[in-house]
């Protein structure tokens, strides 16, 4: 993808730190007031025996890149700015671009607003070496860590809920990671499968832990600091992105996708029944009302599967082509079901109830397979 292969202005191949060293990747979005302090703290933290380079991956609309280049002149280590013309994937996309540009054996990911203490960089790397780990997470949720800088009870509650839900969805992949929401961690470059990653928003550690499966994990406690300058860039929209990210990660296998398809289909009863109720109240006859209301359920299902299940398989067809095919399959399902039940009862002597249940299951599987093959495959 083109946004990942942009040249890195200022990164001279001859200056790149040797293996065994650390590349610090910092995503930035309008952080000009934090840069000098961050670079000073990194300078003070990283001992001379740990060769280091810093790569900023910047999507700013302000003068952050210029501020970085100016501040870099006072740094004893190489500093590069990768400014993305096309900021795909948000924070996570920026981090993946940084992972691809990083050259050292260890890569530390940290925020640009000084909420992650740079004094921990050497400890993260040393812990990884000692424990022979591939991933070292700076955690707020182990002894010695805290989320002091998470402003407000609301954000604490959201963070707790999100952590619980995420751990429940990926018990195996997140084993040993108490803080999968952390944006501060060290990972061995050899453990990153950058081409497999599909980052979407803030939770890049989750993405790496689930898709790259880095193997042995260690943790180091840390105190989430107050933001030095400016405000968090997270929004309510970021919350929805997170849910889409979770859904995408959880439905990589066909079986999980089929389960998701079923859940979304079941949720379609809500708009369907609401529409049926509204139309009959307005005086429409039952049959035309049911046919119309069913289209409401179809539209609802289409929106949800597009966002949650087939997000990265939409490019093969235009949206109206996909909607048309999806609606056709959904309505074929309705038309097929009645003769199928009649067949099961009449020819195979089944009772009406098991025949209906079996017909529902059969048409559901057909609809799922049809949707995969006819709507979302090239
Ligand atoms: N390049 C780029 N593109 N950087 C971004 C973007 C983006 O779209 N959005 C945010 N950033 C940068 C910010 O400039 C900052 O350096 C860092 O990513 C973190 O963004 P904040 O907006 O400060 O995040 P936060 O403090 O709300 O959340 C942090 O803590 C959470 C834990 O509570 C992040 O580390 C989250 O990943 C973490 O889950
Ligand atoms: Mn922050």
Automatic annotation (TrEMBL):
PANTHER family, per database record: DOLICHOL-PHOSPHATE MANNOSYLTRANSFERASE SUBUNIT 1
Transmembrane parts of this sequence: 259-279, 285-305, 326-345, 357-377
Species annotation: Streptomyces roseochromogenus subsp. oscitans DS 12.976
UniProt KW Membrane keyword: yes
Protein name (database record): Dolichol-phosphate mannosyltransferase
Pfam families associated with the record: Glycos_transf_2, GtrA_DPMS_TM
Lineage: superkingdom: Bacteria
Keyword check for Transmembrane: yes
GO molecular function list: dolichyl-phosphate beta-D-mannosyltransferase activity
Family membership noted in the UniProt record: Belongs to the glycosyltransferase 2 family.
Subcellular location: Membrane
Glycosyltransferase 2-like domain segment(s): 23-192
